[in-house]
Amino acid sequence: MPGPMFSARSEESSLAASDVGLTAVSDLAVAAVEQIRKGMRDRETALPAGRPGQVDDVVAAVLAGGILPDRGRGGRDWPELLRGFVAGIVDLTADTVAANLQAPVLAIAAVADFAAGVTGQSVDAWESGPSGIALERELIAALWNLLGHSGGDGVLTPGSTQSNLLALLLAREQSSLGASFENGIGPTRRRPRILASELAHLSIQRAAGVLGLGQDAVIPVPIDAENRMLVGAAADRIAGLAEDEFPMALVGTAGTTDFGSVDPLDGLADLARSHSAWFHVDAAYGGAAMFSDRARGRFRGIERADSVSLDLHKLGWQPAPAAAMLLRDPATAIPLDCNVACVNPRDDEQAGYVGRFARTLQTTRRADALKIVATLRVLGRDGMAELVDACLDLAVHAADRISAHPRLRLVSEPQLSVVVFRYLPVADGESHVISRINAGIRRRLMRETGGSVGRVDVATPSGLPEVCLKFTFVNPYLSQSAVEDLIDMVVQAGSAEEAQG
Ligand SMILES: Cc1ncc(COP(=O)(O)O)c(C=O)c1O
């Protein structure tokens, strides 16, 4: 009798969702959690302090013997790998982390994500994960409901970079349907233009490039003193388009990365409608703030968008990926429609076996709806709102403290949970010197304290941007006194940078 083909039989290599495998999963999960707990306790700082290359040294030591040894090292190797990994992570629960839109993860979300992994579901073909498919459909409806619209469609994506791409792809398809024969004599070849605020996320430009429109198809629209797109200026830009150009899409940002500012969405919806342009809202950051009644008012008009990008791995506290591209009119998804025998044969679909393949550019895709739905049901709208409000409060508290501090200048009042400010040296210097000091503060904090704050290069009329610092509050459990300590940390680092000259 020939022996088994696969010889590495061990607890670790049993099939996770099998009876035997689940026992292994349980044992391994408990051990992994303990290892993470120990690793987190051993950590002294949020980021590994010191030079960045030190992390590579730790990882290299853990990987001694190579990633793909000729003979498997067995399960005892795994805790060691996890130890090295945890030693080099950023601790998103730490008091000294306020740099990015990278939220700490809720326990329920982490475990639901794990459950999706254990069961190995995919949502492309019906038979790959029927309940994940149904959950995703229901979740999309619930998210539209949150935004104030019913009857919309959409799909979960790896993040808003991809959501923005997908939305602009559909905008392009829609515009070519409407524009191609409008002069009645044949296809016109007008160049599509996308209008977005100067502060729109770079992924808008990159999407335009990927779509073959060229990154310069995105026309930056000036902003007001509160960093919101000027609707009048957008109208002027449209009026100024050349004869062979047309406004394919207007992109409003609901929560800019740099300032958390929310564009006047209602006005932009009107403008888009009056030019038959697609209206896309990039609510990657801000969308989830709509759980809070306190914040909702800022988003009026989002319900009129043709498409919306919304992340729940920012505010939402999910492990990435947890993002949605929402489509107002299900018919506009038709360009993504396709059938292939190996995934979604048309006759199967007609018999009700419908997966999510024809709604996205991906094929295999995790059942990410599970973790989001689990979180929303466990916390409810009020629980989510409480977490959102806690982040908003932290930003207000930080802004108050910064305003009162002689060595700091508040650059923008918080609109969501972002606060932008600048360290002011004792010896007043030229702007580029102050910029250098502020840039230095960020690196010094990472190197010496293992803490992190964000950076914003604020445009100025001189053309020379001012380097500023930014707190991004996405940890709702941070205390107000921790915020005060963070401010002290920044000021101390600023003094040290200044002393260094
Ligand atoms: C406004 C905005 N849009 C898009 C993105 C990209 O989102 P993701 O990282 O989920 O791809 C970000 C990321 O921070 C963002 O702030």
From TrEMBL:
Its cofactor is pyridoxal 5'-phosphate. The keyword Lyase applies. InterPro entries: PyrdxlP-dep_de-COase, PyrdxlP-dep_Trfase, PyrdxlP-dep_Trfase_major, PyrdxlP-dep_Trfase_small. Signal peptide: none annotated. Gene3D superfamilies: Aspartate Aminotransferase, domain 1, Type I PLP-dependent aspartate aminotransferase-like (Major domain). Keywords: Antibiotic biosynthesis, Decarboxylase, Lyase, Pyridoxal phosphate. PANTHER family: CYSTEINE SULFINIC ACID DECARBOXYLASE, GLUTAMATE DECARBOXYLASE-RELATED. Belongs to the group II decarboxylase family. This is Pyridoxal phosphate-dependent decarboxylase family protein. It comes from Amycolatopsis albidoflavus.
